[in-house]
Sequence to fold (74 residues):
Amino acid sequence: MSLDPKSLPIADVARLLSRTSGRAVTENMLREAIAAGLPMKPGDRLDIFVLAAWLNRELCAARLAPCATATAVD
Fold:
């Protein structure tokens, strides 16, 4: 079974981020990000690349990380 990183269920994204970051990432955390403006795909799915760009933009706006030169999300 192959996974499409551009269309993952929220639960899979939470598991992936938890396992690769070493920090607990929950579905609820992702749903809070969605409520804050993280774009979703149809079928309650997320694009992991859009998530990365969105997080970068949010961190940059909060001045918690250096700003990248291009952070197109839409």
Observations:
- The mean pLDDT is 87.
- The beta strands are 8-9, 45-46.
- The radius of gyration is 12 Å.
